[in-house]
Amino acid sequence: METWAEIAKYLPVFALSMVKFIFGPLAAASLNLGLLPTVLLTAGGMMASVALLTYGGAPLRRWLLARFAKNRRRFSARSRRMVRVWRRYGMWGVAVLTPLLFTPIGGTLIAVSFGERPARIMYCMLAAALFWGLVFSYAVLYLRGTLSQWGLLPAGY
Q1: Scanning 28, 60, 102, 119, which has the fewest C-beta atoms within 10 Å of its C-beta?
Q2: 157: in domain
Q3: What pLDDT does residue 70 have?
Q4: Within-domain flag for 134
């Protein structure tokens, strides 16, 4: 029984990181998790959504476009910006910017839509997820510790 309670403690960090990267370290801080579990769960959550969309991305993208973008303009300011980012920085640029500007879903769909190889998407996104997972997790946990030292957080937080 205690094992399931421990697993349930980690699930929100993993699940939230699948949707928006920064939510993982924030959830981990609220659950008082350490640095290593926070980094691994955050990177793991991002990589789960990256894997889902990389290997099921083309059919999913076609379905989403058919379902939600009926009268979509082919050349919008947003699509031009995506092309500019891709041409200037390539896969590594998209991978590094994914946790900062895009969601794991958005960054992966950009890479898939430009026809990048699945193995390269996984490799670049994993490197970026581990790097930014460490940076964000350390920053959030350090900030939590500093705020509680200053007495700005409730006791026991």
Answers
A1: 119
A2: no
A3: 65
A4: yes
